[in-house]
Amino acid sequence: MHPSSLTCIFLVLSIWCLLTVPSLSAQSTFVVEVEGGPVWQSRNEVQIPNDERGTRFSLDGVVGQGPWPSGRLYLTWNINRRHGLRVLLAPLSITETGSLSSQTGFAGETFQAGEAVEATYKFNSWRLNYRYRLADREKLRLWIGFTAKIRDAKIELRQAGVSAKDTDLGFVPLLYLAAQRELNRDWDLLFDFNGLAGGPGRAFDAALKLSYDVTDRWALRLGYRTLEGGADVESVYNFAWLHYALISAAYRF
Question: pTM of the entire structure?
Answer without folding.
Answer: 0.86
